[in-house]
Amino acid sequence: SLNLNNIQGDILIGMKKKQEVFFFFSINNVKTFKQRMKVLSLTVTTTTQLLDVSKQPDAAVNVAFSQSGLTKLGITDSLNDTIYTNGQFADAANLGDPGTTNWVNAFRGTGIHGVFLLASDSIALINVEIIAVKALFGNSITEVYRLAGQARPGNQAGHEHFGFLDGISQPAINGFAPPLPGQTPIDPGHILLGETGDSLTRPAWAKDGSFLAFRQLKQLVPEFNQFLANNPINQSGLTAKQGSDLLGARMVGRWKSGAPVDLAPLFDDPVLGADPQRNNNFTFAHPGSDLTSDQSRCPFSAHIRKTAPRADFNPVNVNNHIIRAGIPYGPEVSPKEAASNTTTTERGLAFVSYQSNISQGFRFLQMSWANNPRFIFGKSDPTPGFDPIIGANAGQSRFVSGLDPNDPNHDFTLTTDFVQSRGGEYFFSPSISALKTVFSS
Ligand code: N7H
Fold first, then answer.
1. How far apart are the CA of 216 and the centre of ligand 1, in A?
2. Ligand 1: residue whose CA is nearest its atom 28
3. What span, in angstroms and rounded, lies between the C-alpha atoms of 90 and 424?
4. 274 within 8 A of 411, measured Cβ to Cβ
5. CA distance 435 to 425
6. Would residue 424 be called left, alpha or beta, if left means φ above 0 and alpha means ψ between -120 and 50 degrees?
7. Is the beta carbon of 304 within 6 A of some atom in ligand 1?
């Protein structure tokens, strides 16, 4: 079984907090840094702690390092992941980003050595922790960039900025938690290095660590809403508003409540959406329906189908699984932005995914599935199109088919990317024991 005292808390279960700050830093003085990391490593929050409310600290702290951070620290062992080694800046074109001019300056290059992830139900408690971390590390680090994420207010808590409930479908880790109905069981080595299912050669100290793919993904919410309002699905029995809601649900593959369109094809079903025993219990296959041509329930291009094709893709390549641990950032849409259908203040998703292999995990889902109009392969329509949520075409327009249940071959042309990359970095989140040894002195 897994040593949950040795695995940083965010990896398997997420911070589960209303507030989370990503504090990106560079390292100036290696000797001092390692001395101070010895101290911090005693309080880095473990999985065991996050699982038990009575053991949770006021503010949880995790830490992860880029390749340039490892290099700076003199850690020369190869983690055996070329994509990590090269860093995300070098990967921008592969991810479909339209260049890097829209990237946050801090992410342009390899200047970020590491990130502290700080989470709490109160931003005040996070700020207290940041002051303590800054005092501990002193001049051995420089803050390069900070991004503050927060759950959305009221009944939107847990929903991302387009309004959809997030964090529903995650793989179930064998030996850690029994799968809920519809959850895919995977070996821990697909998330954690050195565990069963990780077949690559790794340094011994990398065991129980995980690669963290970070992306700052800006969302154009008023523009997304305007697109839905302008293109309602024309279906008898539905008002225009209901037709717009249906279009949005078919782009995602779920309704705003989380109810999957595969189980609730025409109307939202909030009771289904809120029921963990049912809201993930589907495969896209139905008796008497042809899996290669039937898009009446869920388009092949829907975001959750492109990124997790279930029965479409058998046997499922278990390597292509990630655990998602992101959080929304930025303010709510203002009345002025809503009225003008124009974003003026940045908001989006501070996307975090964990996997033991970046090229098979986050990067594969983005590059080979979401951005590939021919995926899902083997369908009657050989070009289902781009993922309408996250698919990227280097800034060019994107076509998407299957969205209209009555005319599935109709291609929609999306001239706006409703999700836009502001860049990011690839990190490695080491085990607690590695933090106490390799990263400390
Ligand atoms: Fe996605 N969204 O609001 O539309 N995502 N995602 N994602 N995503 C999911 O099942 C969203 C992004 C995956 O197992 C849901 O938890 C937005 C990236 C995967 O059925 C919703 C952004 C990547 C799943 C969203 C974004 C993925 C998933 C349904 C960016 C990988 C699970 C809730 C701003 C490259 C699929 C849920 C499954 C689910 C949204 C980003 C992947 C609502 C807005 C970059 C694997």
1. 14
2. 304
3. 11
4. no
5. 20
6. left
7. yes
Handedness of CA 313, 318, 319, 320 (dihedral sign): positive
Kindly give the confidence (pLDDT) of every residue in the chain, 441 residues in length, as a single tens digit, with 9 standing for 90 and above.
Answer: 999 999 999 999 999 999 999 999 999 999 999 999 999 999 999 999 999 999 999 999 999 999 999 999 999 999 999 999 999 999 999 999 999 999 999 999 999 999 999 999 999 999 999 999 999 999 999 999 999 999 999 999 999 999 999 999 999 999 999 999 999 999 999 999 999 999 999 999 999 999 999 999 999 999 999 999 999 999 999 999 999 999 999 999 999 999 999 999 999 999 999 999 999 999 999 999 999 999 999 999 999 999 999 999 876 566 899 999 999 999 999 999 999 999 999 999 999 999 999 999 999 999 999 999 999 999 999 999 999 999 999 999 999 999 999 999 999 999 999 999 999 999 999 999 999 999 999
For ligand 1, is residue 252 a contact (CB within 6 Å)?
Answer: yes
166 annotated active-site: yes
Mark 149-173 as b/e (b = at least 16 C-beta within 10 Å).
Answer: bbbbeeeeeebbbbbbbbebbbbbb
Contacts of 63 (CB under 8 A, 6+ apart): 8, 40, 44, 114, 115, 116, 117, 429, 430, 435
> Which residue's structure tokens are 């992941």?
81
The rounded Å distance from CA 194 to ligand 1 centre is 27
- The two beta strands, 210-219 and 398-400, are unpaired
Prediction pTM value: 0.98
Pocket probe mutation, ligand 1, options 245, 303, 417, max atoms within 8 Å of Cβ: 303
Q: Which is the catalytic residue, given 10, 81, 166, 187? A: 166
Ligand 1 centre to CA of 169 (Å) is 9
Residue 356 near residue 79 (C-beta atoms within 8 A): no
Reported ipTM = 1.00
User: Which token pair is 60?
Assistant: 């949880």
